[in-house]
Design goal:
271 residues, alpha+beta, D-amino Acid Aminotransferase, Chain A, domain 2, seven-stranded antiparallel sheet, globular
């Protein structure tokens, strides 16, 4: 039987990635990335992805690929791939482990594409663990902690895990942002965390829709007073949460509908 070649790809600075080029990235673990969903060859929130890559590159490497370079590589992958796909942009050092000399090397750009995803349907039940991700504001690779706690949550009968910071407040989940509902007001956790691109899209569209929003420290005591909760990431603008460990919370369907409405209002553009 003949197997058709995959239309999904991995490219570094525009050319097909070789094993020798991928090896430093695999073993060094010093890189950052952003993940997006492509639908009909269009992307939502590209400005937020580019901003994330620029800031993280400057923080990690002291220099950043230009927006024009990133746009070109993303555009090429979109045009050569499926109409609907997942697309990940990773920025890393082509020299692998860092030394005084290698820090002056221009970071390389890895583009990977794969099957599209809309995430799980939910609702989800999350375990809770006391954990703060290192360099939490950067979407970096090699985070064994979040994968470990995901596996532990599943073993305990939960769907995923949420993190509680040193102040006793919910901050984020393994690969998700958390968002809460308080009778007409959207609440974002006041904590050190990664601000997701989906989170940025939803925030600006809720503002356009005149929906009240605020930051608030979410303790377990406060959680019992709220009327809904959800997770979001590049897959989806909202999946309901019905439990944080033993703390049950109502499935707020109007809240989830609002999050999806806000995402739908964000324009999707060709590059």
């Amino acid at each position: 039987m003949t197997t058709q070649p995959s239309t999904y790809q991995s490219r570094i600075d525009g050319h097909p990635a070789t094993l020798s080029e991928l090896s430093p990235l695999a073993f060094a673990g010093f890189a950052h990335f952003t993940a997006m969903q492509v639908r009909g060859c269009k992307i939502k929130g590209l400005d937020l992805h580019l901003d994330r890559l620029r800031k993280a590159s400057l923080e990690l490497f002291g220099r950043a690929p230009s927006d024009e370079k990133l746009r070109f590589h993303i555009k090429t992958a979109v045009e050569e791939g499926e109409e609907d796909q997942s697309l990940t942009v990773t920025v890393f050092s082509p020299n692998g482990e860092f030394t005084a000399n290698s820090m002056d090397v221009e970071p390389a750009v890895l583009i990977r594409t794969g099957a599209p995803s809309d995430g799980p349907k939910g609702p989800l039940r999350l375990s809770t663990v006391n954990y703060e991700r290192p360099l939490a504001t950067i979407k970096h690779v090699g985070e064994v902690g979040k994968t470990y706690y995901l596996h532990q949550a599943i073993r305990q009968g939960f769907d995923d895990a949420a993190f509680v910071d040193s102040h006793g407040c919910l901050s984020e989940a393994t690969i998700w942002n958390l968002v809460f509902w308080d009778d007409g007001t959207v609440i974002w956790p006041k904590a050190t965390m990664l601000k997701g691109t989906m989170m940025g899209i939803i925030q600006r569209q809720l503002e356009r829709l005149d929906i009240p929003q605020r930051l608030e420290a979410i303790t377990f005591e406060r959680l019992g007073e709220l009327s809904g909760a959800a997770v979001m990431n590049s897959w989806t603008p909202g999946i309901p949460i019905t439990a944080f460990a033993s703390n049950v919370i109502a499935e707020a369907k109007p809240f989830i509908s609002l999050l999806h409405k806000a995402y739908k209002a964000e324009p999707a553009n060709f590059l």
